[in-house]
Amino acid sequence: MENNFGIYIHIPFCARKCNYCDFISFYNKDNLIEEYMNCLKKEIDNFDFSKKIVTTIYIGGGTPSYINEKYIVEILNLLKEKLKNNKIKWQDIEITIEVNPGTVNKEKLEEYKKIGINRLSIGLQTTKDELLKEIGRIHTYQEFLETYNEARKQGFKNINVDLMIALPSQKIEDIKESLEEIIKLSPEHISVYSLIIEEGTVFYKLLEENKIELPSDEVERNMYWYVKDFLELNGYNHYEISNFSKKQKESKHNLNCWNQEEYIGFGINAHSYIDKIRFCNIDNLEEYIKNIKEGNFEKNRTIEERQTKEDEEKEFMMLGFRKIEGVDISKFKEKFCENPLYLFRKELNKLVEEGLIEVDLNNIKLTNKGLDLANIVFEEFV
Ligand SMILES: C[S@@+](CC[C@H](N)C(=O)[O-])C[C@H]1O[C@@H](n2cnc3c(N)ncnc32)[C@H](O)[C@@H]1O
Ligand code: SF4
After folding, report:
1. Rounded-to-integer distance, Cα 308 and Cα 277, Å
2. How far is CA 197 from CA 29, 135, 166, 167, 223, in A?
3. Using CA positions, which residue lies closest to atom 2 of ligand 2?
4. What is the number of the ligand 2 atom nearest to the C-alpha of 22?
5. What is the total count of domains within the chain?
6. Does residue 112 sit within a domain?
7. 309 domain-assigned
8. In CATH, what number is assigned to the domain containing residue 370?
């Protein structure tokens, strides 16, 4: 069986730090951009793609659109050269870049298009300017609209918009308004994330000091179901817990990850999965640069897991449950030569009795109750 192979490239620079964000990204290290990008090129050049069939490239961050577009073009030119014998033609690879309003202009988008980027993921979060300010975004809704419209003008036909729910002081009416505004634009893909308060963020501190108030769990769930119903009624297919898309516009890159396919991550804190080994690059920018400059690529990597067959099977289940269509029983059988219904009969019976999952002809998937309590399902397969 031939497998899809994904490439992730991490750009850890932002204009400022949003109040909720704990992704590895810096707003005060612009002086290292040039050196970092040179190291990224070395790391990519050092990787042997000859036996891989690359189907997706994802440039994420941080804010990839914050840095000069010449760096993105250089990275993609290098990959194009490295992948000249790839089974999939360059123009057929799904190439995504995350872009933030307030950091892109016509010229940047033109360059992205020219080099072959064919999918944009725009971080909006909410259409309400007061909320955007409260969560520490640098842009207004108007600026998002300018970015979106310019992207369409440049011919981008596959656009994702990121939204967030359960933000401090966000009301269900705000979400309704955001969704109504967004579907008018008809993006191909919409991701909707519930706010997670992460340690070390501004919001974590404000919450500890009782300076912000979050919606209750019940309100958060109401928001989630409102989003799901609204988007489904408007022609979007709910295909993963937090992701909705028009027909055939699912994110191939993310689907590959949920289907337990292999990928390589380049840059700090980038994760990889190859030969049943999960590993991760260090998250210290200066150390990453130092190691690459010394040609010490391995020193940047930490092995997180060497999977046994059992680990791999459990993980296949857990990742499968993230998809709304659930775990594909025949794919499981094909991959592991075992029947998941028999192998995990104890766990599955318990979850069915609790009303969290259901089994149909070829799939095992979350019920509506299971969607609300997905973590309980995942725990059975850790
Ligand atoms: C990798 S982030 C970076 C994308 C881009 N820099 C931006 O800000 O739009 C991708 C998305 O994750 C979501 N996100 C980030 N931090 C989050 C948090 N603490 N809780 C929930 N969603 C979060 C946001 O919707 C964000 O757009
Ligand atoms: S949410 Fe995006 S723009 Fe904001 S700090 Fe995180 S990575 Fe940067």
Report:
1. 10
2. 25, 12, 10, 10, 17
3. 62
4. 6
5. 2
6. yes
7. no
8. 1.10.10.10
Ligand 2 atom nearest the C-alpha of 16 is 5
Does 15 reside within a domain?
Answer: yes
What pLDDT shows up at residue 266? 98
Q: Which atom of ligand 2 is nearest to the CA of 21?
A: 6
Q: Which ligand is nearest to the CA of 125?
A: 1
CA of 20 to the centre of ligand 2 (A): 8
Indicate the top mutation candidate among 24, 63, 144, 161 to test ligand 2's pocket, ranked by most ligand atoms within 8 A of CB: 63
Domain of 327, in residue numbers: 315-379
Q: What is the pLDDT of residues 43-53, one digit of tens each?
A: 999 999 999 99
Reply yes or no on whether the pLDDT at 3 is more than 90: no
Ligand 2: does its nearest atom lie under 6 Å from the Cβ of 14?
yes
Residue 1 has pLDDT above 70, yes or no: no
The answer as to whether 295 is a domain residue is: no
